[in-house]
Design a protein that fits this description.
- The chain has 272 residues and is mainly α.
- The chain has one domain (2-104, 117-265).
- It has 14 helices and no strands.
- Helix 4 packs antiparallel against helix 6 (78-100) and helix 6 (78-100) crosses helix 10.
- It starts with a helix and ends in a 7-residue tail after the last helix.
Length: 272
């Protein structure tokens, strides 16, 4: 393996090795879901659609954090680091929330309902996601955190938290808002396509590398640091657009077919 790494220009320490922290995190997440959802599985079966969605989200997290994506994104390629961001914040969270949605209960006291209503309001969730997106791509913070495993884990957890918060109004109807129907949720996601424009422009059009950790990293193949950074910006913009517009398309067609179903179920009255 060492001779292959030398021939490909890949550092020897990048070769496969287990990531115990990632495996432990995935096992913990799956264990909590297994314990918390036993009543649901007893009623609807052990492998229903929400369960499949949840484990698909866990699989996405594992792929994003473990080797080789985790190794490359941890300190070699900014573009792979951006791919991690998309997987952790935009792909895995909606799948996880689809899995836990049947387990969410609306029962709470007045104070808890008031806090939940404000915390999960679309304006609040979009603002939180935008702040996390901007802060976790700020060069001084990234360079300070990425040099340690704890700091890198903090970024990953911030992305996951931001993604769960962002997708909550779209996926989980708790607390219930009558005005947050398909048109409002589609508008919410359309607005979300614009929040990464600043970071995209900053990375794509900067004349110099902005992250010291990737500028000083051993080279991978023939990709320069500047081209890697430009690619990272494109991955953020284009990859995020693909995820969000896929969700928008799904919401639109569900809305369309639901309206058709309702119209067909209403008997036509004869004209008087």
């Amino acid at each position: 393996m060492q001779w292959w790494c030398a021939a490909q220009g890949v550092p020897w320490d990048w070769t496969w090795r287990p990531y115990p922290g990632v495996w432990l995190f995935v096992a913990l997440l799956g264990g909590v879901y297994t314990v918390g959802g036993w009543r649901h599985r007893a009623r609807y079966g052990t492998w229903d659609a929400p369960t499949k969605a949840f484990w698909s989200g866990v699989l996405v997290l594992w792929l994003a954090l473990d080797w080789p994506v985790g190794a490359l994104g941890a300190g070699y390629l900014a573009s792979v680091h951006m791919l991690q961001f998309l997987l952790i914040s935009l792909v895995a969270p909606p799948l996880i929330l689809l899995g836990v949605r049947p387990l969410v209960r609306a029962e709470a006291n007045v104070w808890q309902r008031a806090v939940a209503r404000r915390a999960t309001h679309p304006i609040t969730t979009l603002a939180v996601f935008t702040i996390i997106l901007s802060a976790t791509h700020w060069p001084p913070l990234v360079d300070a955190l990425m040099v340690t495993q704890v700091g890198s884990l903090a970024l990953d957890l911030a992305w996951l938290l931001g993604g769960l918060v962002f997708w909550w109004p779209v996926i989980v109807p708790v607390p219930k808002r009558l005005w947050l129907g398909p048109p409002a949720r589609i508008g919410y996601l359309v607005a979300a396509t614009l929040v990464n424009t600043g970071v995209f422009a900053f990375l794509t059009f900067s004349d110099l590398p902005v992250y010291a950790i990737y500028e000083l990293a051993p080279p991978i193949g023939s990709l320069s640091t500047r081209d890697d950074q430009r690619l990272a910006g494109l991955v953020m913009k284009m990859g995020g657009a693909v995820v969000l517009w896929t969700a928008i398309t799904i919401l639109f067609f569900r809305w369309f077919f639901e309206d058709e179903r309702i119209e067909r179920s209403v008997p036509l009255r004869a004209d008087r």
